[in-house]
Amino acid sequence: MATLITIAVLILLYIVLIQVGKTVEKVRELRGESGDYEKSGNINATLMMVFLVLFFAGIVYSAIYMWPKLLPASASDHGLKIEALFNLTLLLTGIVFIITHILLFWFTYIYRQQKGRKAYFFAHNSTLELVWSAIPAVTMAILVVWGIKVWFEIFPNHDDLPKNRIVIEATGKQFNWLIRYPGKDGVLGRRLITKENVSPTNELGIDFSDPASHDDFFASEIHMVKDRPVEFLLGALDVLHSFYLPHMRLKMDCVPGVPTGLSFTPIRSNDDTRDLLKENPDWQKIDPETNEPRWKNFKYELACAELCGKSHYGMQMNVFVESQKEYDAWMNAQKPIYAGAAKADTAATAVTPETMEMGKDSTVAPAKEAGNAVEASTANAKH
Ligand SMILES: [Cu+2]
What we know:
- By secondary structure, the protein is of the alpha+beta class.
- It folds into 2 domains: about 110 residues, no CATH class; about 220 residues, Cupredoxins -  blue copper proteins (Immunoglobulin-like).
- Helices cover about 50% and strands about 15% of the residues.
- The chain has 10 helices and 12 strands.
- The protein has a 5-stranded mixed β-sheet with strand order 3-2-1-5-8, with helices on one face. A 5-stranded mixed β-sheet has the order 4-12-11-6-7.
- The longest helix is centred in the first third of the chain and has 34 residues.
- The radius of gyration is 30 Å and the shape is elongated.
- The structure holds copper (II) ion.
- Copper (II) ion (CU) binds next to loops.
């Protein structure tokens, strides 16, 4: 109702302004001042020039202000390629933006109404039309071709992925990430999406009869090795989520029913980026929570980039890029899911009918749909 009233008020205000304009016009006509817009034209033209200067000054100011707040240099090899493409696009569109805006305001100034001036009738110029069609066409073609090249580099054939890569499974759900590592064998255990297998204690439907699943573990942080390729197998249990690693310049939707994935190589450890940020005045500021400079506690992060519900903001996780030695030490300290599941299993079986009923409304039903997809994704991965 309030929105409706607001819209009605805005429409009435618009009508009133038009009527006032018409009245002013009529009064002028009666006074014999009709057609003399030179004075107001001069004022408007000057204001246009003032606006042009303020507009560009504002852009320069905000660019200088925001510069130190930009993300630090890309921490993945893919990020470098995406950034190069992004920067070229920004440069080209930036040049066009500056030229067209200067012309737009400058023309309103120099071609304002003046006594005795008549508009020049300009009907057609083939050369000019050819030039202004060819330049954007060639520019767009360069951007598109380069874009396709980068796309194929970032998403190669699955068989061409490096053999030494770490495979990690990330599944989004309201509202956290289930991060599953394959453990020492490097193979993720199979998932079996059946009514019996998927339960609140086994949301992913891991098939524990598959020995490969026995050393799989869930992680509350993502760990990767510097300069060692990684592959993420992505999925979702309920709604759309988006796997976003801003420092790596990577983002991929997690879709229930459609397996997606990403592969890349982290090229900067957390320490490397921390060293970069040390030099940045914005990161040298003291964090009131820790009483230390902000760069000291910098960590990469995983975030959900899809508005997936009321606690969407909580789908955040710390990400670490480290040496193989540190990674191994972290991995050795993790507890396999299988050890815990064996205990939980007995409890879950005892309450199966209730668990299944409850599951239909909440966790299990959506998990089933998504699970089919993940099963397919694992199958794809094994091609
Ligand atoms: Cu989400």
